[in-house]
Amino acid sequence: MNGLATDASATAIAALATVAVLGGLLGERRVFGWTQHLFAGLLTGYLVLIAVREVVVPWLVTPLIADPAGRPELWIGLAMVAITALSPWLPRALAAVPVSIMVGSLAAFGLGGALVGTLLPQAAATVVAGGEPFGVTLAAVVSAAITVLVLVGFLHGVPRGRASLVATSAGRWLMVAGIGGWLGYLLYARLVLLIDRIAFLVGDVAGIGR
Fold first, then answer.
1. How many whole angstroms from its chain centre is CA 41?
2. Each residue of 122-137: pLDDT tens digit?
3. What are phi and psi of 160, to 5 degrees?
4. Rounded average pLDDT over 183-189
5. What DSSP line would sit under 79-145, residue for residue?
6. DSSP symbol at 205
7. Above 90 in pLDDT, residue 198?
8. Mean pLDDT of 48-68
9. CA 148, CA 171: separation in Å to the nearest integer?
């Protein structure tokens, strides 16, 4: 009985949240704004909980409790966590230190991930092995050409001839086309999500078509 009541309550809350979000399409901005704040608060709380449970406690607190004197570097990390948490009430010069380290680390991590996870596999995929079918070879050559042109499109402030200008322009247009395809995929995903929410309201809540 309690399980059925819980499921009914969850369905009702999900339905109200769905109607509130869809109401933004009809011009009801106040309820939509409150729903945005609710979702942002829930997401922030969830991320904080994940950070505490998966990073702070197992990687800082637990090792310090087990060996307080043997891990001095963890005290520095714990101090940076405390400074970051108290940054709104601390001097900006002090609060900027852990934030700068965090931003720099995230930038380096993102660059390393782009290099190892995207650029190197893309370069490896363009290597044509002997005995491959013509279609595979052609796809690898086209992929290599697009990769090189997009990378050339990022060049700025260097002497250029006519050929390099054409290559740069082609690379930028290819990059724009890739971004357009990615945005089209996002739009498609959002439409699928919208259809799913409408089907939820019509089928699970209103019971139509069941």
1. 18
2. 777 777 666 667 677 7
3. -135, 145
4. 91
5. HHHHHHHTGGGS-HHHHHHHHHHHHHHHHHHHHHHHIIIIIHHHHHHTPPPTT--HHHHHHHHHHHH
6. I
7. no
8. 90
9. 8
